[in-house]
Write the structure tokens for this entry.
Amino acid sequence: MASEAIDPKITVDRESEGEEEEEEEEEEVEESWDDWRAGEGEDDEWAPVASVVCLFCTEQFDSSELLFDHCRLEHCFDFYGVVKNSGLDFYGSLKLVNYIRSQVSQNKCWSCDQAFKCDQDMLNHLHVTNTCFKKDTKFPWDNDFYLKPYLEDDSLLHSLSMDDEDDENGNGDVADVKLVDRKEFINQVNVPNLEKLEDQFGKFMENGVSEEKGEENNLKVVRHGAAARERKEVDEDYFGSYSSFGIHREMLGDKVRMDAYRNALLNNRSLLNGAVVLDVGCGTGILSLFAAQAGASKVVSVEASKKMATVATQIAKDNGAEVITVVHSMVEDIEKKMQIEPKSFDILVSEWMGYCLLYESMLSSVLYARDHYLKPGGAILPDTATIFGAGFGKGGTSMPFWEDVYGFNMSSVGKELVQDAALIPIVDTIDPLDIITDSVVLHSFDLVTMQQDDMDFTSTIELHLKPSQMMDHLNWCHGLVLWFDTDFTARFCKENPTILSTSPFGPKTHWAQTILTLREPIAMCSENGRSVISTLTSKEIGTEKCPVATVRIRVSIARASHRSIVVSLEATGLGFDGKKKNWPVQIFNL
């Protein structure tokens, strides 16, 4: 089969060429190990073992033999000698490679564990090991943790295989580690060991490697279908959008946002002093800088945008924040990039909120980080979030503008725009004077205890005219406006609890509010106003002749496709005489 340029991380299994033709519409693609082997000619597009990175520096080589010769001559490290003298098997050699990469990333000598301030000092220190690593003793890399690749898609790991000749002769020593043909490798490894490799390697592909028994006995690299492809594409678009400095300028210029996080981090020093902090979605790293400034002993800043991870690294360096380590990764994949112990962080901080609080669905990553990396009793900042809602009047729509454009009536345009707004939510600021009902709580989240499924919810609220509107005989409710608060409560921020509010009654934020417009407005009045209006029971409820006392709205918010949400809204008008009217459900996709 001709080799195709596919993304090796997203794959689906194919069992026959007949299935290939049937599933062509779903664009499912298979690749075998043979397809991945380095090409014989210079024009081959795929060469997965094209380069291997040195264990100690950034130099790259075409083969592991050249790399290990370089390590022996330049860095006083004889890989083959250590493997043989220590009696390491295949898994032991893998652990050794990952252990050394982990030590070097921390500027530590792999042999004596001495730490240095910079990588150059560490390189200058490297020496022929003076430690006698005897067989059958506990090695510092003898931990299953080091079976996980320290570098994502580390070509060196994929090129290692053990020559077992000496073992067969009863020698017990491992003679060599070498590059091996993929098919030969498969024939050497039995199925249980292959499955162990798949599990403990993290499968080095996002969605795994599986064995297929066939004439060629190849390992198949498979694609998980359209859903996985779409998820990856959405993630790339999402994180790619955060590569623009414009959006970071907007967020950093949001005074409400910045003041809340700055106050929570800098004015709760007893919480931050000496703490180990995990910053999920660090962007420019501003929250990490606040944490470092407040006295954190270590900050791990996770950023999925490659460009922004590079930027955040430079910013931390420019500001002398040596306690900050920036990792280019999604938090769900961080263990592929660095050694990280479970439940090892004192504080988890993140600015995860999107429009209508839940748009972008980054909260799921925060909950993942909480469950995997936060110590029991550790702090989450912020630790609660609440969505509020209120009814708005005509001023919250575009109608007033179009009714008088330099003295001309263009209300036909306004009516069409209002119809469009009944299908698509509008993210914009709303004048508090245009809000005609009391504000109510739609839903609250406790980030310490909530689960992933809690992000989908249904709530029923009742809207009543606020006192300032009761003087008017009649008001028209044109829709529901939503906003949110996130709180840094006294549970963790004992010295200085802080609230970040996107309320229309407070200073503006870049989140603005989310405006859901009804297909048709609902007439409302107070008990006092009712006596003035001549209501007729035969008239339709919710009209000028028969306004309602209460608008009851059932709101459901659920995650739809990846990183988007759908909001459903069902309005019911409750009359003064107990009668009611239900309006058709409206669906808004955000």
